[in-house]
Design brief:
DNA-binding transcription factor activity; three-stranded antiparallel sheet; globular; DNA-bd_dom_put_sf; Multidrug-efflux Transporter Regulator, Chain: A, Domain 2; 261 residues; 8 helices; 3 domains; MerR family transcriptional regulator; coiled coil; DNA binding; alpha+beta; nine-stranded antiparallel sheet; single chain
Length: 261
């Protein structure tokens, strides 16, 4: 089970949105602690959360989504209506069709290899800031690379270009991001990061598959007796800065964990 804040990070839905969905009967927590009133969600509920997000992105209202989730037979009628609307919006067809394709996939059958690894203690140069949105991450990387060049810092052979998402829940604005790379040497500007355990998925291609990636990570975490203990992390082996072709991108995604007691 996952606390509402952790579930928020796994689904990129704010806690406020999750409370709203609960009130509508759209996505109810798997269980609620009667003493603390803490809400807990299961890994399988990430599938429903991703369906809700995808349906919203292709234009359905929450009322329509609730009807479809309660009666899957209605989906075909709604799909037909949407296809007619998409023909009138030719510039948006590709993006919306991709979301429909995502809905038709079964996340439980997606083949992602999960590896539990220890990220060893290391020395890094980093920049951490509040940015307007996750789309502004590239600005932090540009700033970090300029800093490295200016200071003549020596990057390790395995630099582990890493983005850390520090917010305790998913945020659409004012996002707390940190970018960092491994370095050699000593400087007052460097910091030492302690080792930690992290289940990871290394995948190729665009970030549109991130919902399936986080679902696979959550299922592994739940099935293997671990709990999330820290922020979401992406390690970029081939990043958009290195290639403009999404097919070339290689990303390792995960988060810090600890064994359940």
């Amino acid at each position: 089970m996952f606390k509402i804040g952790d579930f928020s990070k796994l689904t990129n839905l704010t806690v406020r949105a999750l409370h709203h969905y609960e009130k509508l009967g759209l996505l109810t927590p798997e269980t609620t602690d009667p003493l603390t009133n803490y809400r807990y969600y299961s890994a399988r509920q990430i599938i429903t959360a991703n369906q809700i997000k995808a349906f919203q992105q292709v234009g359905f209202s929450l009322k329509e989504i609730k009807k479809m989730l309660e009666n899957p037979d209605l989906m075909e009628d709604y799909y037909s209506t949407l296809e007619m609307e998409l023909k009138a919006e030719r510039e948006k067809v590709k993006k919306k069709q991709a979301m429909l394709n995502l809905l038709q996939q079964n996340p439980l059958t997606a083949e992602y290899h999960i590896e539990l690894k220890e990220i060893p203690e290391r020395k890094v140069v980093s920049i951490r800031k509040i940015v307007a949105s996750e789309d502004q991450e590239f600005q932090l990387w540009n700033e970090l690379m300029s800093k490295i060049e200016k200071q003549n810092d020596k990057i390790t052979d395995s630099p582990q270009a890493m983005t850390i998402y520090h917010d305790p829940e998913y945020r659409q604005t004012d996002v707390d991001l940190e970018v960092q790379m491994n370095v050699i040497g000593n400087s007052s500007d460097f910091k030492t990061i302690s080792s930690f355990m992290m289940p990871t998925v290394t995948f190729s291609g665009s970030y549109e598959q991130m919902p399936q990636v986080t679902t696979a990570l959550a299922l592994w975490t739940e099935n293997n007796g671990y709990s999330i203990s820290g922020p979401m992390i992406n390690i970029f082996h081939v990043s958009p800065a290195q290639s403009s072709n999404p097919d070339d991108w290689v990303t390792e995604a995960g988060y810090k964990v600890r064994p359940n007691k």
